Amino acid sequence: MPRLRRAAGADAGTLLLLLGIGLFWGLNWPAVRIGLTELQPFTLRSVGFVAGGGILALIARLRGEALMPRREELPRLVLAGLLSVMGFNVLTAFGQLATETSRAAILAFTMPLWATLMATAMGERLTGERIVALLAGMAGLMLLLGPDLLVAGGSPLGSLLVLGAAVSWAAGTLVLKSRTWSLGPVALAAWLIGVSTPPVLLGSALLEQPWQLGWPSPPVVGAMLYHIALPMVFCHAAWVTLVGRLPAPVAAIGTLLIPVVGVISAVLLLGEPLGARKLAALLLVTGAVATVLVGPALRRGPGS
C-alpha cells in the first residue's frame, strides 16, 4: 500500500506539472501582447531569450547536465533552435501585432497538423485517422481565415504570420526528434534558446534601436517577468524533462490546454470578443490535434 500511494502521488505531481504547462503557456499569449504595447517584437524576444536561456543554462548546470554538445550535433541543433524557437517566437510576435491574440493562439496550435503533413511527405503512412484530423483542422482554419480571405479589405497578414510560426515549430520539432541528443533535457532547451538569441539581438539592434526606449510601465514589466519566469523557464524545463518519459496521452493534456487557456485569457484579460466562429474553430482544431496525438497512443497502450 505505501508503494501504491507513492506512485499515485508521483502521478499527481506529474499531472500538476502538465496542467501548469498548459496554464502558463496559455497565459503567455496575453502576456506577450501586453509586452508588445511598449516593446517591439525583436526587442521583446531578445529580453526573453537572454534571460530565459541564461536561467535554463544555470539550472542545467545545477542539475549536473553537460552543457557542451558533441561537434557533430551542432548543425542540426542550430537548425532545430532557429526553426522551433526563433522562427516560432518572432513570427508569433509580429503576427500578434496584426491579428487578435485569441485567434493567434488557435492558429499556432495547428503545429501538430503541419508536423503530420511533413511526416507523411517524408514517408509515414497517412491513416484514415490522420485524414479526419487534417480535415477538421483545415475546417477550423477556414473558419478563422475565411473573413480575411473572402471579404473585400480583409487583411490576412497577421494570421499568415502565425501560421508560418506553426509550420516553423513543426519543422523544428521534426529536426529535434530526428536523433538522440547527448545533452540533458534542460541543457538542450537552453541551447535551443541560446542559438536563437544572436539573430534576434541583431534584429533588435538594426531595426528597433531599443536603447532609445524609456523604462517600460509596470504592467509591461510584470508581463515580461511572468513571460521569463514561467513560459520561458518553467515550461521549457518542465516540458523537455517530462515529455520523453510520459505516455503520449498524458503529455497531450498540457498541449491541449494551451489554446483553450490562450483564448479564454485573451477574452478576459484583453477584452477580445469570443464569438461562435472562433469557438467553433477552437473546438475543431483542439479535436483534430487530440485525434493526432491521443488516439494512436491510446491504442499502443501505456508504455507508448
UniProtKB/TrEMBL annotation:
SUPFAM superfamilies: Multidrug resistance efflux transporter EmrE. GO terms for cellular component: plasma membrane. It holds the Pfam family EamA. It is a multi-pass membrane protein. It is found in: Cell membrane. Keywords: Cell membrane, Membrane, Transmembrane, Transmembrane helix. Its main location: membrane. The lineage of its organism: Bacteria, Pseudomonadati, Pseudomonadota, Alphaproteobacteria, Geminicoccales. Residues 15-145, 157-293 form the EamA domain. The chain crosses the membrane at residues 12-30, 42-62, 74-95, 101-119, 131-151, 157-176, 188-207, 219-243, 250-270, 276-298. This is DMT family transporter.
